[in-house]
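Notes to self after the Tuesday call (sharing in case useful).
The group wants a holo model before anyone commits to mutagenesis around the pocket. I volunteered. Ligand is flavin-adenine dinucleotide. Logging inputs and output together so the record is complete.
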Amino acid sequence: MKIAIIGGGPVGCYAGYLLAKEGKEVSIYENHAKIGAPIQCTGILTSSFDQFNFPMEDYLVNTIDTIKVYSPKKKLEIKQKDYIVCRTKFDQYFSKIAEKEGAKFFLNHTFVRKEGNDLVVVNEGKEKRVTADVVIAADGPLSSTAKAFGLYHEGRENYYGIQAVMEGNFEPNVIKTYFGSDVCPGLFAWVTPESQHLARVGLAMKKNSRVFFEKFVEGRGWKVKEMQAGTIPLYHPKQKLKKGNCYVVGDASSYVKATTLGGIVPAFQQVQITVDCILNGKDLYKEMKPLRKQMWTHLQVQKIMEKFSDGDWDHLVGYVAQPKIQKVFERYTRDNPIPLISHVLLREPRFLRFLRYLF
Ligand SMILES: Cc1cc2nc3c(=O)[nH]c(=O)nc-3n(C[C@H](O)[C@H](O)[C@H](O)COP(=O)(O)OP(=O)(O)OC[C@H]3O[C@@H](n4cnc5c(N)ncnc54)[C@H](O)[C@@H]3O)c2cc1C
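Result:
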């Protein structure tokens, strides 16, 4: 079975690794000259990443033990273990293990269109035709491949993330998140330390992210070392995952948690399911149901958060700061919001009023 993967990001490389390990003939086409560059990611992985059982020493930069949450008037501390990775090294780790299993990489190769059953890729100005039994679209949030196969849902929306690696003084094992209409309406700003002296500082919004970013960092005495920016898809529940011999994964399929915009853990789970379906002829939509339910729940929470007033944020942060509630938040990672909602928020009548924001 010949498999063409478009996109050598972490998701395409992980899919390539799993398929090549099973003896499939895998070719990965990546439009950049180097895997993992440029970086457009904060590199936070929740401890749920442990489920994939990969050694992390090649790409781990820092380990977090606390998340501090700031609303306009309140604050809260949650003990959570997170990993901070270098995205260049992370992506390269997955390309190396895919290559070791026999996947072939074609760098500087850009997918441009589909012609009949063939794919057309361009390398150094020359077009090449590629024939494959299975095509995997892993070419990120604006996926040309998903579009060419008629798989890109027209109603999709994107966030624009902007961040800087900054020099300053930071709490080395604490991620700080800031909510409120002055900071980042609809989502949050983050300060994610690489060390005591270096942090990835950013925010994401559907529009105006640069204006809010500049306001957020102004006067803090931090020095910009490197600017990074990128598109982040908002999960769309009607985004199709398969048509004919083409499967869509990762950002190309909008599999990003709508509450935090973390895409790597859900996409790796999605890749495992997709590969299992390709190899064993299983029904993709049936197998994907539990993960889709989680993604859908993140989206509903995001729809509520998007309409929160500053008072709502203070209310929520004040409520979660109660020791008994805080403990529940510390027990679960933020990958699966269902236990948090059912164990905590739906049992608190004061929070049922937020459900009105869904309609
Ligand atoms: C500012 C920011 C911060 C983020 N922070 C986090 C975080 O902390 N944690 C987290 O989990 N997620 C985070 N994300 C999201 C995360 O970066 C993505 O979910 C993740 O990169 C998805 O991987 P992917 O392989 O699907 O797509 P990508 O990483 O986008 O990889 C797609 C690859 O396809 C290639 N490509 C594109 N078009 C073509 C083409 N036509 N032909 C050939 N190749 C092509 C691209 O060059 C790229 O290498 C963040 C995103 C942004 C923008």
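Two things stood out.
Residues 6-12, 29-32, 40-44, 110-111, 138-140, 144, 161, 163, 202, 230, 232, 250-252, 256, 261-264, 267 surround flavin-adenine dinucleotide (CB under 6 Å).
The first strand starts at residue 2 and ends at 6.
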